[in-house]
TrEMBL record:
Protein known as: AbrB/MazE/SpoVT family DNA-binding domain-containing protein
Keyword flag Ion transport: no
GO molecular-function terms, A-Z: DNA binding
Location of the SpoVT-AbrB domain: 1-45
Any Pfam family: MazE_antitoxin
Keywords: DNA-binding
InterPro entries (alphabetical): SpoVT-AbrB_dom, SpoVT-AbrB_sf
Organism (species): Haloferula chungangensis
Record SMART domains: SpoVT_AbrB
Presence of keyword Flavoprotein: no
SUPFAM superfamilies: AbrB/MazE/MraZ-like
Length: 75
């Protein structure tokens, strides 16, 4: 990855998706030993804290967890 004359790099699309980062999002760079870690912050941090959190409560078919597990297993 090349650094521009302004010190900029492009964050690869798969990393932006993983972090939930889009245009105008804010990120932080953390130095850990000899590594630099990029993390999203602000409202994006809540979005990426758990990719599954957004789905919580989305399955509302009236089945209990045990009933759902029995229905989805191939036993």
């Amino acid at each position: 990855m090349k650094v521009t004359t302004k010190g900029q790099v492009t964050i690869p699309q798969h990393i932006r998706r993983y972090l939930g980062v889009s245009a105008h999002s804010e990120v932080d760079f953390l130095i850990r030993g000899r590594e630099v870690v990029i993390v999203s912050r602000g409202k994006d941090e809540e979005t990426t804290a758990s990719r599954f959190e957004a789905m919580r409560g989305s399955r509302n078919e009236g089945l209990s967890t045990d009933e759902w597990m029995r229905a989805t297993r191939e036993d």
